[in-house]
Amino acid sequence: MPSQTADSALLEKIEAECMYRLESGAPRRTLDDMGIATARCGGGSAMAMRRDVTRYWNKVLGFGFDEPVTGDLVAQVCAFFREHDAPVAVLQPASSVLPRRPGRHRPGQRPGAGKLVGEARARPREGAEGPGEHNQSLHNMRRAGFSVRYERANWVWRP
Q1: What is the CA radius of gyration of the chain?
Q2: Is 114 helix (H, G, I), strand (E, B) or coil?
Q3: Is residue 129 within 8 Å of residue 135, measured between CB atoms?
Q4: Structural domain that includes position 69
Q5: Using the 8-state DSSP alphabet, how is residue 98 labeled?
Q6: What pLDDT, on the 0 to 100 scale, is given for residue 1?
């Protein structure tokens, strides 16, 4: 049986590649009209959409498996979002790739996750459901027969 890290690496890479191809493969007019830009970073995919009214399409995921998540990598990702005028973005590292370092951290926060807060001026938001929240996508997935393999925090970045 594969380890959770190997399992999450495969799933993250598949999702990152799917999102990258979906956005970068849009027709030229859509790319221009929506202000779409894509990039590879840290082994993952970054997607920026300047005119994203849904606040869904600006994200980076699949990173941290090919190279470690460092302050420099996070700064590079944030520079990409700034360069393409993303109004908000979500950094979605699998928890297994966040650096483990002893020291102080917030309750419920994995040690080393502070790099995302410090470099990206981001704050964590759990991807599943918080108290009183309803994640329709999660419920649709479960109804379709899928199950949660692992959880990751969504780190919301604002310029």
Answers
A1: 16
A2: helix
A3: yes
A4: 4-157
A5: S
A6: 44
| pLDDT tens sequence for the chain (159 residues) | 456 566 888 888 999 999 999 999 999 999 999 999 999 999 999 999 999 999 899 999 999 888 888 888 988 999 999 999 999 999 988 878 877 654 444 444 454 455 554 545 555 555 567 778 877 878 888 899 988 887 777 788 888
Give the total number of structural domains in the chain: 1
pLDDT value for 4: 57
- Distance, CA of 98 to CA of 86 (rounded, Å): 24
Candidates 152, 92, 103; CA nearest to 128 is 152
Q: Are 111 and 100 a contacting pair, CB within 8 Å?
A: yes
Query: CB 3: neighbour CB atoms within 10 A?
Result: 9
Count of C-beta atoms within a 10 Å radius of residue 153: 24
Tally Cβ neighbours within 10 Å of residue 11: 14
Q: Which of 158, 152, 61, 67 is nearest to 113 (CA)?
A: 152
Beta-strand relationship, 153-157 and 36-41: unpaired
What are residue 123's DSSP bridge partners? 156
Closest CA to 44 of 24, 69, 7, 75: 69
Q: Token digits for 91?
A: 């950094």
